[in-house]
Amino acid sequence: MKDWIKELESPAERKWEEFYRNRHQHDKRVRTTHGVNCTGSCSWEVYVKDGIVTWELQATDYPLLEEGLPPYEPRGCQRGISYSWYLYSPIRVKYPFARGALVDLWREAKKQHADPVEAWAAIQSDPEKRRRYQQARGKGGFRRITWEEALEIVAASTVHTIKKYGPDRVVGFSPIPAMSQVSYAAGSRFLSHLGGTILSFYDWYCDLPPASPEIFGEQTDVNESADWYNSRFIAVMGSNLNMTRTPDTHFISEVRHAGAKLTVFSPDFSQVAKYADWWVPTNPGQDGAFWMAVDHVLLKEYYADRETPEFNHYLKTYSDAPFLVEVRDGRPYRYLRAAELEGYADVEHNEWKLLVWDRERGPSMPQGSIGYRWAEKEKGKWNLEMKDGKTGAPIEPELSFLERHDEVQQLAFDDFAGERTLQRGVPVRHVQTRRGRVTVATVFDLLMAQFGVGRGLPGEYPEGYDDPQPYTPAWQEAYTGIHRDTVLRFARAWAENGLKTGGKNLIIIGAGVNHWYHNNLMYRAGIVGLMLTGAVGKNGGGLAHYVGQEKVANQASWGSIAFALDWGMPPRHQNTPSFHYVHTDQWRYERGSKDYDKTPGANEHHTIDHQIRAVKRGWLPFFPQFNRNSLELAREAEAAGARSEAEIVGYVVEKLKKGELKFAVEDPDAPENWPRVWFIWRGNAIGTSMKGHEFMLRHYLGTHSNAVAQEWAKDEVHEVAFREPAPEGKFDLVVDLNFRMDTSALYSDLVLPAASWYEKHDLNTTDMHTFVNPMQPAVPPVWESKPDWEIYSLFAKKVAELARTHLPEPVKDVVMLPLQHDTPDELAQTEVRDWWKGEVEAVPGKTMPKFRVVERRYTEIYERMASLGPALEKNGVAAHGLKIPVAEEYRALKEHQPRKSEVLGGVFPALEDGRQVAEAILRLDPVTNGEVAYRAFLEEEKKTGLKLADLGEKNRSVRITFDAIVAQPRRQLTTPTWSAILNDGRAYSPFTLNVERLVPWRTLTGRMHFYLDHEGYLAWGEHLPTYKPRPDVTMLLETEVTEKEAKGRLMNYITPHGKWSIHSTYSENHRMMTLSRGGYPIWLNDKDAAELGIRDNDWVELYNDNGVFVQRAITSARIPRGTVFVYHATERTVGIPKSPLRKKRAGMNNSITRARLKPVLMNGGYAQFTYFFNYWGPTGVNRDTWVFVRRVDRPEY
Amino acid sequence: MNVRTHMSMLFHLDKCIGCHTCSVACKNLWTDREGTEYMWWNNVETRPGTGYPTGWEDQQFYQGGWRYDGRGGLSLRLHNKTQGLTRLFFNPALPDLKDYYEPFTFRYGDLFTAPEGDDQPTARPVSMITGEPMEIETGPNWDDDLSGSDVYARNDPSLEGLSEQVRAQLEEIEGVVFNYLPRICNHCLNPACVAACPSGAIYKRGEDGVVLVNENKCKAWRMCVAACPYKKVYYNWSTGKSEKCILCFPRLETGQAPACAHSCVGRIRYMGVLLYDADRIPEAAMVDDHDLVETQLEAILDPFDPEVIAAAKKNGVTDDWIKAAQDSPVYKFVKEWRLALPLHPEFRTMAMMFYIPPLSPVMSVVEDRALNLALDTSGPEFELFADLTKARLPVRYLANLFSAGNEGIIEGVLKRLLAVRIFKRAESVDGGLNDATRAALDEVGLTPETAEAIYRLTTQPTLDERFVIPPYHREASIEAWNDPLERKGQEGFGYIQPPVRGE
Fold first, then answer.
1. What pTM did the predictor assign?
2. What residues does the 4Fe-4S Mo/W bis-MGD-type domain cover (chain A) (predicted)?
3. What structural domains and CATH numbers belong to chain A?
4. Of the four listed, A63, A102, A378, A628, which is most buried by Cβ atoms within 10 Å?
């Protein structure tokens, strides 16, 4: 050996090595996780030394799934492992803080008024005082206060608002319960008892894929990431797995080595593109066009040119393809109903049972339609067995009338991109109905015509793949920028893979697609490609939508606790996109969807008018509900002689019919209709997620704003009261519970220190894996912070205390509810008729919203919060329309954690702290209690008439307790509250229960839908999968003012998920700031940048009428030309300079966006188009945004 | 034969997510204190790119590693012994702050304390060195995810030898690409840092090959910083000592993988024992560039060979370490399957961390103003197997990184990776091997059994299969200077004080 290789084995000299050994020693390791808004649900071990959290590393003890699947360990990413920095960081909220101007006013008012509620009223009744602290919002001046003072302000403002305006003016926002279920439930349970309004998140974040309820009748149901490994062809679209599913990505890299092909669709060379075999850089927002052409090829080559028995069988069994659609006025119209046929005239719910064409007998009524689901007489036929629901005869449905038809009719198909209508021949048959002869086609034949597969039929069909007519490979080139040969190559490989593997074709899809205005159409185009290759409901196949889709696995039990259903009260659930669109007055700054959404006929109405009608028809919720206090209204009804709930409701309906009572949504700018008190917890409602952030600053908070947009709505609206000027500063009080000073905290009136994820008990689940993970304290809550459950308990105690003076007696509250998904309300409306126009009788729960009368006991609010209520013992838990009895579990829980309440007069299971709540959730839910799961299957057997309980038999004795999940991650059980069979280590793949056991989807036909026959869909031209062009800058009216001062280029602004944060969390974390560029960079194509005179790391200003954003640039050829990227959810707290253009502090990523609602998604009261919280409704799209881009000199701070 | 044991890490770059979880794990454990702010013992680079510190591979500039004169002479590029003495106080090859970065933070506290004003307060960026407001100009991962950049990617020293046409394509949509390169100390067999240290403070541990800077002996000469061609020794400005990746030896000694490997959520890292012949080091480092990989692999010994086992035992290697060497996943990838390579073998330090080069997507071409995959439509399932020139990551580039320019070695690795994929696809989709599949395996010299073994270790390994950590027998090591029973009562009370500047 040469002497330069020194080895030292002198033991004494190596004693120094303990320098590092000592650092590595620690006192304790604690299993917990991060309750951040991601879908990781990673099990972590937190290392504690000297009572200080020093670092964290991943736990690695996940049980293995079935043989041949890679292990899940380790889970946890760069963000999660940076968390320990936050605990003791200078951005940590250690004490309660309040806006100084408000504190002064409050203390002054308290000197005048001993009663806190009166003190609050005094401030609110003085416009000057209100203005004083509202205009100070976000401008510094925080003051540390005591918990006692903070609680008094919270309770006083809450009680004042309930008394003066009604409880629905108290609103709360907290996103994604799954990440910390107990903490979410703390606030939602408090608000539910109060009668407050709970704002949705999944739709507002634009994470809800409306195509899923459209096609599957399901909010979202996806493959756990281990199931990717079962796939053999994966198409990743608009989903940057490395960034957003970091702990799952290894399954992608690994399955390639198992022989899977991987195609990545992404306009930029993204992090996930590096794994691809084929990277297909479709133009931004054009994935739909690509898939329309793929579907064209699939239909042509696997259905028209030849018959593929496997695919045909799949379509007949699991899709609506064989169902009969009436043809009317030269267009496809509605499904033909069994009620129309003499033979089925006596069948229950025959308006809701649809027909197929049996080869021998003609029109026949198979089981499984929604009419069977809500059967009262004929139960047990809600299943996918292809037999006649009346006679029991087996049905052999015809997919197509091509071979045998009565005639070929030329029908109209809309080409929205070409702005024309195409006449294409469709084979039809005639059916004799009770109203005469009717012409019908199968959905399958309509699909062929829509996609332009001619099969020799006459009409405007393309001549071949090279004919650029809808929807050929040549047609899509103009939109996607991708060559037709690539489409062909892809489509054939896709089909062959599906055929050879029995449907192991997987689409992984995300926000890159879902955030566009027409996301539902893009998704549908892709899902069609899955259905045509038999891929949905197969392990390794189907649609894996990954955008904020965190799953509360224990939904059934958790929902009861979170929304106080255990006390028998319906919560006020509000769809947030509508709420913010209306209340932040963003509707005033546009002319409505007609500017940017194309429909076959005229679309004359402003979005706000559609919104108002949707509320009045019972399609969507809206709070505040009336222009009156709902408590007063009940009091008034009783004074007028109403005795029962029905009579009070009758009184209210009469008032509405006479116009003596108005819906608040009809006049949202009237002071009596403003929301007043806003609780924000676990989320960044003012910052990150607020599309139209600058409008919110103006109209909600009454503070500074960088919006310069003009108002456009005045002469365009019909049903809304247009008040001038628009009000500023609607909210009296904004309260934020937080562990860090984020943008929401910075703009709130009260900032309360919340215990973080290493300091409390909670539960955490996801749909990326099937384990249940705990949170538990590694150290006690630091400084003066408290767990959310404790904070809301303190709120409840203080409200109860003030209620003894102000609301001492039980009061009645009239609660308005929309027609509800997974209830018989799904059968409410076969047609759209307006009661206020006299087109139909006003019938609550049928033609208009439902009303319930609830008794509120504000003095008992804490007692009820802390006690699991008796309604649960009686009613059981429920999910997806399935009620599951849990009386035994309720009683066992009462033994295990009893709570005696003098006030309530009895003993109840205790919910006094987070640990107890977690235990209750686990005990009462089928995914963690095998006996409950077994009973759930017995209930499902009754509904379907299928044998299912065998799926639960093996696990009947399993009880997953909190101690069990602390010891090791534990896997969820198979239950009918979800759609996959998990037994024996099978990976979760959605709808395997449907495909293998013939349980229907929760849709109109009980099958997956190609066709959507609601009147609203026909009017919107979205009855068939289609392509609509992207809204273009000229349609959006958000650059009209800035255009005049513009010095820069107009570019499309895209905000994908970032690498150095989970939404805004971690983004200002020192570790992440250091590993990125110490800011929130603006990504530009290198050539675009050069043309704009922008070099890497130059300061750049992005601006439009909505607001302004200033950050430093990164230039790269990996970004497509004409597009500017900013990784979304930036904070405006850290390192934000002033805008050279507007002279004020520049904003955040949503300063330059705004919310635009798609009216077709407001449809309701009809099968799968029936409202449910976070499940259905318009979404908060934000991709279709245009900004001016210009270089600026180094700006000022 | 002088058999020694080495703990080596292997990085499967085809699986790397580029998430930097490893970097943060390391920072949390080891370099989260004054003087270490800018140290990233583990970092992850986007390639093509310039890395950290900027352009570290450019030895014309940094003067790291060894120079071979082609005639049996190997010398430090930095200086020879005499020059070393004369340059003690003048070391022009040291990276300075602009090559690293000025550590920054923000005045977060201002968000709480700002008085009410007429605009929103913000937390300004400030220097962690001066505490003064600063503009952030660079950072430890500045060119993250930044392919196709004319400022960074284009200046990657490893693009040397690529044609102008290929280089230009890397800046266009048809060819743009990137991959990731995680880096820790290579714990080299022929470490330049050890050779360059005037104080004799750096040593390579006999039992596992870990290279350490003795914090008590270091005298702040910083020759190690300059001599390391990987720039993985850092100078702690607070203690006045150099520090570097310690391969988490306190974790290894207790049977745990290093924190970076443990936390690797891409599951790309493997850890295991290699046996090597220390006598072969000089000759292995003194061959032509083209042969460097081969000679290094020859120095790595077969743990199943009875002669090797006998020689190992003679050198005091215990049975359980020999067993660990036989179970070592690193041995399989590096030696048995020839899939893993050292980083920049031309630096001639004989890096003992190994990398499996990554696959990349097929290139595109513009036809009729539409983008088309550059495919021969009649080709096999994974087209690159037939034509590696269509891979977005140029073979030449990977050869510059991992085989001192030897493209044949890279082609062999990539084709073996692809052949395993072809094999597994045939098996799981087509119902078994067909002639084309067999031909693909034959072409790269793999049997179905070997392909299956590669597949399994690539995709399925559990924690214990990824990290085969031998028993360290600390009691036996401690016994050399203390009675283990006594030590039991003394553990943690400490023998040393933390390093002190100037001592």
1. 0.97
2. 27-91
3. 13-87 (2.20.25.90), 212-299+469-545 (3.40.228.10), 320-467 (no CATH), 1033-1192 (2.40.40.20)
4. A102
